[in-house]
Write a structure and sequence with these properties.
Rossmann fold, 2 domains, 7-stranded mixed beta sheet, 9 helices, 9 strands, globular, Class I SAM-dependent methyltransferase
Length: 288
């Protein structure tokens, strides 16, 4: 479990620093990950894990993925594993739900190679390593200065993943995971051009929810695969900036033609109480 902050420091935060930041319009909170708060009585722990496993089983089936053994056993293993995570983050990045979904999905996909675009502090790299200990992981992020976990076996680059030479990969044994706040339609096109057909996306958001997400990675998978696209553009504001997703977008149409199957996983909040996750599985048609 994560260590508690020193008593004197916590008193200083509550009595002096937090009121000061509050007057400035900011919240000052400990950098404790959400999984450091957890039930401890056996019945409640069992209910949480069984509920999460049941939802994940349905999600895997809807995504066309075959579980790697018993899902409940994997959820139980992850519950014991996550307190040892070397990354402390409260704002941004994945919480318990997102990390659990990624762990279960990687176990089901069984990749020997993983391309990770968007690394942040390194939590998802650590999760991928726990799920696939022997996989070769390629980590791409324009800023690696904030890493709290650096995988000794992974290859790191600050160049965009699309600039790398991927001739060494076997596409059939590769999964690409995108959490980089770049247009998801663009990533679909880039992946398919390189022969990759198995993709995972974080922060997929429908048009009516994208204003609440951390980056304008549009068109998102939800926008691309929606049952019926409106002729009207989607507009929203975030942090004082205005964004628009045109209805007649060539990138959106191009990406839609490449997607064979997609499924947005349940956010797991109702099962676990932790911050909602936004993982989406995407399968592309093969290269011509």
């Amino acid at each position: 479990m994560q260590a508690r902050p020193p008593v004197m420091l916590e008193r200083l935060r509550r009595k002096v620093l937090s009121p000061l930041f509050d007057r400035l319009g900011y919240d000052l909170v400990p950098a404790a990950p959400d999984w450091s708060h957890r039930p401890t009585s056996p019945r409640e722990v069992a209910t949480l894990l069984e509920s999460a496993a049941a939802i994940l089983e349905r999600d895997l089936a809807a995504a066309g993925l075959v579980p790697d053994g018993d899902v409940l056993e994997q959820v139980q293993a992850f519950w014991a594993l996550i307190p040892t995570a070397p990354v402390r983050q409260r704002r941004g990045g994945s919480g318990f739900n997102g990390a659990l979904q990624l762990y279960i999905a990687m176990r089901a996909l069984k990749p020997d190679f993983v391309v990770e675009s968007g690394v942040f502090r390194g939590l998802t790299t650590w999760v991928i390593r726990q799920a696939r200990p022997q996989a070769q992981i390629f980590c791409h992020d324009p800023d690696l200065s904030g890493l709290q976990y650096r995988d000794r076996q992974a290859r790191y680059s600050t160049a965009d993943w699309s600039k790398a030479d991927w001739s060494i990969l076997d596409p059939a044994r590769t999964v690409a995971f995108f959490d980089d706040h770049v247009a998801q339609g663009r990533r679909v096109v880039e992946a398919q051009a390189r022969g990759l057909t198995r993709l995972l996306f974080d922060d997929d958001a429908a048009g009516h929810r994208i204003h609440a997400h951390g980056g304008p990675a549009h068109p998102t998978i939800a926008m691309i695969t929606g049952p019926e696209r409106s002729p009207e553009p989607i507009r929203w504001t975030r942090n004082g900036r205005h964004f628009e997703q045109p209805a007649d977008d060539s990138l959106l149409r191009q990406a839609a033609d490449l997607i064979v199957r997609s499924h947005a996983f349940d956010d797991l909040h109702r099962a676990t109480g932790y911050s909602p996750a936004r993982l989406t599985s995407v399968t592309l048609r093969g290269s011509p």
